[in-house]
């Protein structure tokens, strides 16, 4: 859904959208499962820059909630994860700040985003917000055993015939763990 200042001139736009699974490409380790409902409103904010110059900013306040699959950081199996969030953001037309020398962004303006001449894509905004809301690390379970570094066997499902002790990388890690514990 594209939101343009023209749509908002008379009144704010209230929306109740549903982004279908597969419509957005999030990241290689993030997949949306099922529709993602997004409800909220868009308002036009005319930013006064003097000399009768008004910049048409778009303010979006919205909330989303949906089911996703993230990959386990250790065994790379998909982990069902419910994500939800809300945001309140202001977007300025890209052309309004085209001359960076004349209008440097002040520190309190760093949160401001930009929209292109064609309009602001609600899907793009939601995609970015979902990515920002991701947990820093996903595990399928606290004690996930991960993959065998040699043969790739998922060690949660069964053992393999590799000898982990003879792998020099594991010896180095074991030594490191020893020094940390001895402090
Ligand atoms: Zn795992
Ligand atoms: Zn193995």
Report what the structure shows.
- This protein has helices spanning 5-8, 122-132, 168-181, and strands at residues 2-3, 13-19, 30-33, 36-48, 54-71, 78-93, 113-115, 120-121.
- The strands form 2 sheets. Strands 2, 3, 4, 5, 6 and 7 form a 6-stranded mixed β-sheet that branches.
- The radius of gyration is 24 Å and the shape is elongated.
- The N and C termini lie far apart (57 Å).
- With 183 residues, the protein is of the alpha+beta class.
- A hairpin with a 5-residue loop joins strand 4 (36-48) and strand 5.
In short:
The protein has helices at residues 5-8, 122-132, 168-181; strands spanning 2-3, 13-19, 30-33, 36-48, 54-71, 78-93, 113-115, 120-121.
Secondary structure blueprint with pairings:
Elements: E1 2-3, H1 5-8, E2 13-19, E3 30-33, E4 36-48, E5 54-71, E6 78-93, E7 113-115, E8 120-121, H2 122-132, H3 168-181
One zinc ion binds next to loops.
